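From the thread on structure requests for the teaching lab: each student submitted one protein with a one-line request. Submission from student K.M.:

"Model B-glycosidase from Massilia cellulosiltytica, tokens only."
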Amino acid sequence: MWGKERVRRNLVAETGHDRHAGEDYARLAGLGIAVAREGIPWPMVDKGGRYDFSGLDPYIAALNAAKVIPVWDLCHYGYPDDLDPYADAFVDRFAAYCRAAAEYVVPKVRGPHFFTPINEITFFSFCAGEWGWAAPYRCTRDDRMRLRLALCRAAIAGVKAIREVDPDARMVHVDPLVRVVAPRDRPDQAEAARRETEVDTFLAWDILYGREHPEFGGAPEVLDIVGANSYSFGQMEYREHGPHAPLAPDDDRIAPLCDMLETVWQRYRRPMIIGETSGLGRGRASWLHDVMCESLAAVRRGIDLQGICLFPGIDMPDWHTGEWVHNGIHDLVPQDGDLERVPDQAYVDELRRWQKELNRVTALDEDPFSDPVELQDVVDAALRLDMKPDKNWC
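Reply posted by the TA:
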């Protein structure tokens, strides 16, 4: 990814994940977490259409040793320097890269195999097409709209290329779940806020599904699994220029997360996960509690919500300030020239509580596949606990 100084950043190196992959995945296994999102850095493996995936080998070894299944993230806000995302060549090059990546990782990792072709198409198009935060550093609404269409075309081509390698591969298309309201003193902005909530939020998923721009080749099996990201700043007050303003936790315009998830479910009727979620600092445990309650309320309604991705496993630096965000399962503490992984104990305790409530394992054994997840356990818990949506969940 790129920073505001227009210099490519490697957050894998900044967090020490490149040096501690074995430890990082062993820690997840020790927490009973059997699936993790892991990135393949397209700009670093693709040199003009020639590929070198050998840098993935330590991560593959770490995943296999920990018995953790990866969801391979193939484009996370970065693409090779010699490509223009607005050019047709971008789609063809991305499809070829996706095919090559699948050919490399599928034989090396025990299945099933999951991929996210392009992460957060909607957010990517905002931050790189309208806000100028990342390459190609465009700053107009038109550029944002054009970039989103280009990324959707590439993602659809990538799905089809991956399935030429593994017809059973599953796709997880991740984007933020947002809700935008007009400022109280600007009712004239209500339509713009409604459009962003009801149209903009869903356009990329609509294209992948084949509902919009069917000429791109989208279809329900292309959209496959919907990954809806949920953060406290996902409910916002409309601003004409730049990012919108997050609503305060006690704002009476906040909607229950359960209701927002149901909107997605009713639109696509595809399996769903919460693709990313986390609280901040001392609020991580309470955030997990609230998200679990809302998620179980959604399951109780019949929504096919199959998982929650706690993002990140280890802390991350803020894109703009470089300061540690303190939103991970583990904080990163400088120690003897390295970064020590220190779990947020309250967060872990809350995770353990829910694992027990849902009859889940608390640590992976030698063969996690011998005891597959019984989603009926989750359904039973949702009915037993009789969870109800709460608009004050955040």
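TA comment: The mean pLDDT is 95. Residues 141-165 form the longest helix (25 residues).
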